[in-house]
Amino acid sequence: MLDIKFIREHQDIVKSAIEKKKVILDLDELILLDDKRLEILKEVESLRAEQNEASLSIMGSNAEEKSQIIKEMTLLKEDLQKKEEELKNIMMEWKKMMIEVPNVPDISVPDGESDEDNLEIRSWGDIPNFEFTPRNHIELMENLDMVDFERGVKVSGFRGYFMKNDGAQLFFALWQYFLNYFISQGYIPMIVPSLVRKESFIGTGMIPQSEDDLYKVGENEYLAGTAEVATMGYHMNEVLEKSDLPKKYISFSPCFRAEAGKHGSDVKGIIRVHEFFKIEQVILCEASHEESVKLHEEITAHVEHLMQELKLPYHVVINCGADLGLGQVKKYDIEAWMPSQNKYRETHSSSYFHDFQTRRLGIKYRDTDGKLYFVHSLNNTACATTRLPAALIENYQNADGSITIPDVLRPYMGGKEVIIKK
């Protein structure tokens, strides 16, 4: 959430952000609403002051004066109650509009209408040149008895799946490999809830922007589509010490996404599913743009290092304004090469937010001078299963349908070098 003072003082900048992110919001309407809010707030405060003054004056008054003051206080109380109710209604409308105001994107973010306008900034690895027609991950995994889609649909419904045998082992191997690396980099490992209260979704900006893609399971609870939501809620309404920053978490959780509006996209396979598992990097740092930029490059570099260790060809794109979330200042997508589709597909998303999320969540830190500031937040996928395994399986396939296991994962799969048909 942006500070209303910032919004009022930099309306042109905020309007540019609304346009760049393709958000539907009338900023002029918000300013008028805020004017009304401030006007009624001033009236409420004035009436409260009158009420307090009358309460004090009644103590030194005679019986006749007291009776008159009480009558006046009764009328005053009625006026105050009406104004407080009016203020309450205005505040509800004001808060609803405030959480829809997007964060201001970095100047380096390109313009665009969709993810088709994201710009490649670098690539790594050689695109595999198979001497045979590459199979897709669905065919490869089914032939090797790594997955069962038919029973997955029977038990779980559309996009359901069972990972089994070497498929299940591959997931565990990736989780452990990625987890060990991030622990070695000083990250705090956490297993976080998937069932999360609405406050954390509003705080991270998932609501209202992505509410259609969430599963609501209670009056005030949803299933999260990323461990970011619960991890950001971990320090909600807390004051941290500057000496404890940056806080670096590597969080694991099951994830759930309705994939609303995408029923015709990736219907088969494990690229786009309703339930999956994810390890997420989340960082809280001091309120410094330079620090956020530095850490943004760092969390992206961590993933690139691991992709290179896995020897998976990929490229990095900078997302255009229309492909940024409500709170993101800047975002990179890391996309792995998918041989069967002859294109790159997203496996990781790396973003920073300044204090957009933490202002909503009430996460502050005490600086060395004793002043309180909202921390800055960042996040990036570490390992999303199922997408990363799909890319790995397709790139490591062999002519006979077997799959070579990357060197770095073999210790986590009992030394096995190749997945073959049993």
Automatic annotation (TrEMBL):
InterPro entries: aa-tRNA-synt_IIb (IPR002314), aa-tRNA-synth_II (IPR006195), aa-tRNA-synth_II/BPL/LPL (IPR045864), Ser-tRNA-ligase_type_1 (IPR002317), Ser-tRNA-synth_1_N (IPR015866), SerRS_1_N_sf (IPR042103), SerRS_core (IPR033729), tRNA-bd_arm (IPR010978)
Leader sequence segment: none
This protein's GO CC annotations: cytoplasm
Amino-acid positions noted as binding L-serine in the UniProt annotation, renumbered to this chain: T226, A227, E228, R257, E280, N379, T381
Keywords, in A-Z order: Aminoacyl-tRNA synthetase, ATP-binding, Coiled coil, Cytoplasm, Ligase, Nucleotide-binding, Protein biosynthesis
Catalyses which reaction(s): tRNA(Ser) + L-serine + ATP = L-seryl-tRNA(Ser) + AMP + diphosphate + H(+); tRNA(Sec) + L-serine + ATP = L-seryl-tRNA(Sec) + AMP + diphosphate + H(+)
Residue numbers marked as site, Important for serine binding: T381
Pfam families: Seryl_tRNA_N, tRNA-synt_2b
Family stated for the protein in its record: Belongs to the class-II aminoacyl-tRNA synthetase family. Type-1 seryl-tRNA synthetase subfamily.
Entry-linked HAMAP family: Ser_tRNA_synth_type1
UniProt protein name: Serine--tRNA ligase
Native source organism of the sequence: Candidatus Nomurabacteria bacterium RIFCSPLOWO2_01_FULL_33_17
Gene: serS
